[in-house]
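Re: export button greyed out
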Amino acid sequence: MTEQMIEKIERIEKKHEKKENLRSSVVLKVYRANRLAGEPGRYDSIEVPVQRWTTVLDALLHAKSYKDPSIGIRYSCRMASCGSCGMKINGIPRLACYTKVSELEGSSITVEPLANFPHLRDLVTDFSQFFVHHRNMQPYVQNEHADIKDREKLSEFVQSPEDLDKFLQFSYCIKCGLCYSACPTVATDTKFPGPQALSQEYRYFIDNRDTASKERMNIVDDKHGIWRCHFAGSCSSVCPKGVDPALGIQLLRGHLLGFSKNEKKIADLQERLKKD
Amino acid sequence: MMIRESQIMKIHYITAIGALFVVAVHILMRLIMPYNMSLEYENVIANYHNIPYAILLESILVLIAIHGFNGLRVILLELRQSKAWEDGVTVLTIAAMMGVIAYGTRTIIVANGLGFE
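Workaround output, generated via the alternate export path:
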């Protein structure tokens, strides 16, 4: 019985190995340019050794450590939590730390900076405008009943699991900018807030601790606001955290058109002291 | 008073649905006789003389003009972003829409014979 199980596992592993593109080395074609210095763009080919578990970020860091220390790259956590290492890998916006080399086909991997962001150097882009759009959405709970100045009155909101489910998936956003990079509207309309900002607006709009629903609707109801989304859906397909920004945008549109009613019962404040 | 974008888009969607309906009726009316016959001069003029059909043609004109020119406005707004461009596009598309509706309405009135007989 045990032998049969082992054989079965080995068969599955072999099948899995066939699917994975196992190589001992790979050629990274890294986009190199320093826009501030006015350098034209070029691709540097760097061969790096890879293992089954090597990610594109690992390969890039190997290239940076042993081949060319001047490669410009932004990264931090190496585990798809910080959203720093977003880049175009073989033409698709992905997190370098979340993309294994073995998943990718071909003998070379092309890495380029994210589209729709101003380019700074090599694989590094400027996120200033992206964060301005995010900030414009007022990404925080607004509730006039919550007294945050008086520490004595500080208390928590009582929220049911059903209320939480309405916005939970949107709160997984790590602001990596992949959806913004994949959005065809952002490519032409710089005033369009982008899928990240709009889905975050929905996240706070539907949160029953927030009382600023009307104000939030006014923010996105603009010439360059939520209506400019073409519903291409590329934002949702590239999100590394499983967030569906296109869904958030469509749900918010439904509220703006009056198809859906945001009849949320504002969460009660539960004074911590009383609870204890 | 400024119209909110959501109100404009409501009009955009409603005119699209309305246009689908009236154009479907218009196509069905073309199919009640052989197609080449329906395009003969006498038959076309007869359609314009039929008041309910003239109203149907006018509604096709209005609905498609509103929907089409708002669509054009949306496309042009995405092309460039500046106050002058946005205001220019809005004024231009509204003027063009009104011009097309006015010219089309004139055609319907003339063909109908109202006020010219």
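The two ends of chain B are 41 Å apart (CA to CA). The button fix ships in the next patch.
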